[in-house]
Amino acid sequence: QSALTQPPSASGSPGQSVTISCTGTSSDVGGYNFVSWYQQHPGKAPKLMIYEVIKRPSGVPDRFSGSKSGTTASLTVSGLQAEDEADYYCCSYAGNRLIFGGGTKLTVL
Amino acid sequence: EVQLAESGGVLVKPGGSLRLSCAASGFTFNSAWMSWVRQGPGKGLEWVGRINPKAGGERADYAALVRGRFIISRDDSQSTVYLQMNNLEIEDTAVYYCTTYGSGSFMAWGQGTLVTVSS
User: Fold this and answer.
1) Is the pLDDT assigned to residue B102 strictly greater than 70?
2) Residue B63 contacts A, CB cutoff 8 Å
3) CB neighbour list of residue B77: distance below 8 Å, 6 or more residues apart
4) How far is CA B23 from CA B1, B78, B97, in A?
5) CB-based contact B109 A36, cutoff 8 Å
6) Is A48 exposed, middle or buried (0-12, 13-18, 19+ CB in 10 A)?
7) Which of A36, A107, B40, B92 is in the most buried spot, having the most CB atoms within 10 Å?
8) Which parts of chain A have pLDDT scores under 50?
9) What average pLDDT is seen over chain B?
10) Is the pLDDT of residue B93 over 90?
11) CB A37 within 8 A of CB A57
């Protein structure tokens, strides 16, 4: 079971927007609207940022948004802030199993 | 407030067994799906398995890498979910997180417990 494909790194300056992609197949990302995104700071547990492709849990800033087209999902962080610097992981339901992406390290320049 | 507290992580030899526990509070445990996710040192997140709240029948799903070696169970009277790990391999070394699960996502996370498999 292959991991979903994410770029290993992304970066942007404060105030800018950055988009992180997550590519799967028709058996996971493309087959279900159950894509989620997680933020993880060093030494901390992951935190759910987006679920069901586009939904934000209570308390997550609206600077974070999700989308999907075909077999690729995306997380966009608008108005970058220093505290957004972290690792980001996507995850997709794939029929009785869940698959994560390899993770993207977001650097705020 | 949802709280999840994992325990039981230790150093164990290859081929050994270990049971992790996760004590839950702040939500209706007996109607909640629960899941385990792990993260190897310096590596990404990996789904281990999940258990549904229904009594009887097949209640758990597992990742291929652990199926047949790991067993997830729950005690609703204690609001606790367990991960029994058998025939441990060096590659099972990781921080193991307990999570709530719903809508295809891992909603709340514990702080994690470290399992080290080494001779």
Assistant:
1) yes
2) yes
3) none
4) 14, 8, 12
5) no
6) buried
7) A36
8) none
9) 95
10) yes
11) no
How close are the terminal C-alpha atoms of chain B, in Å?
40
Amino acid identity, position A44:
K
Beta-strand runs (E) in chain B? 3-7, 11-12, 18-25, 33-39, 45-51, 60-62, 70-75, 80-85, 94-102, 105-109, 113-117
Look up residue A68 and give its DSSP letter: E
Instruction: Note the pLDDT of residue B55.
Output: 65
Rounded CA separation A98/B95 (Å)? 18
| Nearest chain B Cα distance for residue A28, angstroms | 11
A104 Cβ under 8 Å from any chain B Cβ:
no
A41: phi then psi, degrees, rounded to nearest 5: -85, 155
Residue A1 pLDDT: 56
